[in-house]
């Protein structure tokens, strides 16, 4: 994951967590504030209901007793009942009709919801509710016989709505007449509940205590001033849900805004941090694939310190590479000098012997001098020619130029080498010549029949198998030289022991921007005692040759930043593998200078 992606992820997670934490905390605090507001409203409604009911009770307490004591309306009704000897049915019908009209008027004047004129036996003489006239109510009979006083609660189950009930009685000459008035509690509760936005309702006797739920908050209120009165107070949670919904939308909108701002900051910060690192990485890759030079750190002290450390490392590596190269050159020269001395020493022995023999024959004036002179001079010339070949090959090895790098198609180069070895041998019929299948850089296989340098009747075969690979930064001529050497060595080794010598060249990609070249033959392979010295100069098991071919091939591969190795095939034969970097060799032959030039090495497409 890139630095920019990590910063975006980190800032996004922090923004989400912070918004969620603040939002949840704010939401819970808002819920608690609103819930406490519900409780405060209930407490205020409780106090208001208590105050209003106390005022209602005080007003009712003194409302009816004066009427029973000296009101004309009640006195007339008592006289009529007394004339009927306490029997309501024996009263004068006209008096009863007059009472039915007067009671509602009195109730309205006194602002009573109910007013009932009742006899001692509970017979209702007149009432606001005309349907009750003429009926008998035992509860009212008991009530009028009881002494008057503070208003009482009349539960809803006793008939109608819960009300505050008050009464008075007039008793004289054995006849009792009562007046019962009531004022409903519901309108009082509704008026106060509306003022405080609280639902208030009188609870029935025996009704269980209310429980709050998701829809509303409920509480049972008690009033000591009016025994038996219980009021259910409830507040809807809908405002709470609406407020929380608005708060959730605000939190979500704020979270999106914060996340957007955080991501924007992360993008700007990531670019400001990653751009110098990307530029530094690009410069270091150019250094590794091009001419060594100093890199410049931009973007902060840390980047500058990193660039300085890299430059110091490059300086040290270049110095070490230079010292190592000098050491290796000295060691190589010593080894080559030793091997050249050994190689030259061998032809010097017959030359010395021939010269000494000629001198002895000359000193004795031996008649065989003329005959031996031709043989001796021929031997000396052959050995001098041999020494000249050794010096020529060594000069070619020592003067191997550095690679001239350019993007090349290794598959096309390998196809050219295969085609070169497909040329028919001298004197061979055309029908027995090459039959080659072309291959492109995109892959494929091809084969050739016939190659120079093999004995008559032997049918060597050279094959090419290639997978798609990019162009490689390399020296075309040196790559041809390496492949030609390996293919020819394979044909020579296989042709010495088999009638069907075969060499296969395989090319394919490798991880980390590398390519692999494999040259495989079906010969006997390299002798075990030769393997440790296989790539040394003048190491050879051939009767002819100088032994510099593999040494030159190894040097070319090394100078291209690659590797070459040998292994024996499982079914016999030699296998040479070459690994080459696509971008070419890292050039650290000299320490980087202070120049600001930025040359680019050749790049593989």
CATH topology of the largest domain: Beta-Lactamase
**CATH class wording of the largest domain:** Alpha Beta
Question: Regions with pLDDT < 50 over 5+ consecutive residues?
Answer: 425-448, 450-457, 588-605
CATH homologous superfamily grouping of the largest domain: PAS domain
**How many distinct folded domains?**
4
- Summed up, the helix count is 12
Main β-sheet: number of strands, strand sense, barrel status? 6 strands, mixed
Structural class: alpha+beta
Distance, first to last CA: 25 Å
Percent helix, as a range, is 40-55%
Quaternary class: single chain
Task: Please provide the ordered H/E string of secondary-structure elements.
Answer: HHHHEEHEEEHEEEHHHEHEEEHEEHEE
The percentage of residues in β strands lies in: 15-25%
CATH architecture of the largest domain: 2-Layer Sandwich
Shape: rod-shaped
Radius of gyration: 61 Å
Strand order of the largest sheet: 10-11-13-14-16-15
Mean pLDDT: 78
Number of strands: 16
């Amino acid at each position: 994951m890139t630095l920019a992606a990590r910063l975006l992820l980190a800032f996004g997670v922090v923004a989400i967590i912070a918004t969620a934490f603040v939002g949840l905390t704010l939401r819970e605090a808002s819920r608690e504030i609103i819930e406490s507001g519900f409780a405060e409203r209930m407490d205020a409604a409780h106090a208001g209901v208590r105050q209003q009911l106390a005022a209602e009770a005080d007003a009712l307490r003194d409302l009816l007793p004066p009427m029973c004591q000296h009101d004309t309306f009640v006195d007339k009704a008592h006289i009529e009942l007394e004339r009927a000897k306490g029997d309501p049915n024996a009263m004068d019908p006209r008096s009863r009709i007059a009472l039915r009209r007067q009671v509602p008027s009195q109730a309205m004047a006194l602002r009573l919801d109910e007013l009932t004129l009742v006899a001692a036996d509970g017979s209702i003489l007149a009432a606001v509710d005309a349907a009750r006239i003429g009926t008998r109510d035992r509860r009212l009979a008991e009530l009028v016989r009881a002494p008057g006083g503070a208003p009482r609660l009349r539960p809803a189950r006793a008939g109608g709505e819960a009300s505050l009930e008050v009464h008075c009685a007039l008793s004289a000459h054995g006849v009792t007449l009562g007046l019962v008035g009531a004022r409903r509690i519901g309108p009082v509760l509704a008026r106060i509940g509306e003022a405080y936005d609280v639902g208030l309702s009188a609870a029935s006797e025996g009704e269980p205590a209310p429980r709050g739920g998701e829809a509303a908050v409920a509480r049972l209120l008690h009033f000591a001033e009016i025994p038996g009165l219980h009021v259910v107070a409830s507040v809807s949670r809908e405002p709470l849900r609406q407020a929380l919904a608005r708060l959730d939308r605000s939190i979500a909108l704020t979270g999106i805004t914060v996340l957007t701002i955080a991501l924007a900051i992360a993008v700007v910060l990531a670019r400001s941090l990653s751009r110098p690192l990307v530029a530094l990485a690009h410069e270091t890759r150019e250094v590794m694939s091009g001419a060594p030079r100093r890199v410049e750190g931009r973007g902060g002290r840390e980047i500058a310190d990193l660039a300085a450390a890299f430059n110091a490392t490059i300086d040290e590596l270049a110095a070490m590479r230079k010292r190592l190269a000098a050491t290796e050159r000295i060691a190589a020269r010593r080894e080559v000098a030793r091997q050249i001395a050994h190689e030259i020493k061998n032809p010097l022995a017959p030359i010395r012997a021939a010269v000494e023999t000629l001198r002895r024959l000359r000193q004795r004036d031996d008649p065989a001098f003329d005959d031996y002179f031709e043989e001796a001079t021929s031997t000396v010339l052959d050995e001098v020619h041999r020494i000249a070949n050794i010096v020529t090959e060594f000069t070619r090895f020592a003067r191997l130029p550095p690679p001239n790098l350019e993007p090349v198609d290794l598959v096309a180069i390998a196809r050219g080498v295969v085609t070169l070895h497909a040329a028919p041998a001298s004197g061979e019929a055309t029908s027995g010549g090459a039959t080659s299948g072309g291959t492109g850089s995109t892959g494929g296989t091809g084969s050739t029949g016939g190659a120079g340098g093999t004995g008559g009747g032997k049918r060597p075969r050279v094959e090419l198998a290639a997978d798609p690979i990019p162009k490689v930064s390399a020296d075309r001529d040196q790559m041809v030289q390496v492949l030609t050497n390996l293919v020819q060595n394979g044909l020579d080794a296989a042709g010495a022991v088999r009638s069907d010598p075969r060499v296969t060249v395989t090319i394919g990609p490798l991880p980390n921007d590398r390519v692999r070249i494999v040259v495989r033959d079906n010969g006997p392979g390299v002798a075990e005692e030769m393997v440790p010295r296989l790539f040394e100069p003048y190491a050879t098991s051939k009767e002819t040759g100088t032994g510099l071919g593999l040494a030159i091939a190894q040097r070319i591969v090394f100078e291209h930043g690659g590797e070459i190795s040998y292994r024996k095939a499982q079914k016999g034969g030699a296998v040479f593998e070459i690994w080459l970097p696509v971008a070419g060799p890292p050039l650290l032959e000299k320490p980087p200078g202070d120049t600001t030039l930025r040359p680019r090495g050749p790049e593989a497409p």
